[in-house]
Amino acid sequence: MAKYSFKLPDIGEGIAEAEVVAWHVKVGDEVEEDQGIADMMTDKATVEMESPVSGTIVELNGEEGDMLAIGSVLAVIETDELPDEEEEAAIAEKVKQQAGEDEPAEEAASEPETEPDAAPEPETEPEPEAAPARSSARVLASPAVRQRAADLGVDLAQVKPQTGDRVRHSDLDQYLTYGATYLTPGAGKKRDDEEIKVIGLRRKIAENMAASKRNIPHFTYVEEIDVTALEDIRADLNATRGDRPKLTVLPLIIAAICKTLPEFPMINATYDDEGGRVTRHGAVHLGMATQTDTGLMVPVIKDAQAKNVWQLAMDIARLSEAARSGKAKQDELTGGTLTITSLGPLGGIATTPVINRPEVAIIGPNKIVERPVIVDGEVVAAKLMNLSISCDHRVVDGYDAARYVQALKTMIETPVLIFSE
After folding, report:
1. More exposed terminus of the chain, fewer Cβ within 10 Å: N or C?
2. What are the structural domain ranges in the chain?
3. CB 418, CB 227: distance < 8 Å
4. Of 40 and 303, which is predicted with more confidence?
5. Model pTM greater than 0.85?
6. H/E/C letters for each residue in 106-142?
7. Which one from 34, 232, 303, 397 is the annotated catalytic residue?
8. CATH numeric code, 202-419
């Protein structure tokens, strides 16, 4: 018997370390070749580390939430046969492909989305203890995942895969960590205290938000905008859309943002803290703050300024779904120059959004409400929306932010300008 030190391979270009999100084995466990032993996360990509050999786990390095350097020993496995150099290279290449590749678009489009809180069908009689696993027979999962779900009493049909259509240990961990905590007890019942370790995407969000507020002097400006005409033109466009996707208000607002930005280059910019350099970007790579089951993600519409409202609508739908299903590629989650964040019907009166560093501004349209307004001495009904913008005061002056929002207000309240050359 020989001991094989499985070192954390290069997960992606420029990556120096990765976080242990979940262990799927413990010391003393027997593992087969290609069996998942741990989930590692870097930035917003989670990769399952699979054992390159069969054998017995004799050592695991790091606890869940720990950061490990690329090249450090992840696990030590006692095995009958050590891999040669060619096999080692194949292992490293497999991990890189796993980190960078996604399911084909055709499969993603045809895969029905599982509602995370869908209730299981009622049973007519009690099932034995292992019933949850058997009720999920049509779910793709390994025998080990099925057995673990059965032991925990989890119905795999309620667990949404983060990548592909196969439920892995990492998906089960996410469900146990986040999904179960939102189950509402009966009215008046006291819930037990819960202590949840902040790891994975939630830790990344915490680090990024803390760094943004710590390093950026924020200020927020809010303006009321009459979107009555915008909503009218949206209804007209939807009435004649044919096979094109139904328009929400968001693509129209994004188009207005892009049309207004050329006169205000300080808004579409990024700031290098260490180099003391501001880059004013010509192209608008617009990030969309998107809520997922595991936390906030920001997929990016590349070259938004070059797209019409229908193309923007398709990109919004595609990227939002990719983020929520965990299928967004790394280049779809990076490179933003400006971010928009919208809570839709939950938008409230006003928001004070946190800037997505190193960007210098973030725009937050709020809920549209119908209220009476006075026009030419008469009371009429109007659809109104407050729009918030948070800016980095090191780069954007309050006066310039107000001027930009006023220009954007004019564009939105006169929507024919969105479609003019």
Report:
1. C
2. 2-99, 127-197, 202-419
3. no
4. 303
5. no
6. HHHHHCCCCCCCCCCCCCCCCCCCCHHHHCCCCCEEC
7. 397
8. 3.30.559.10
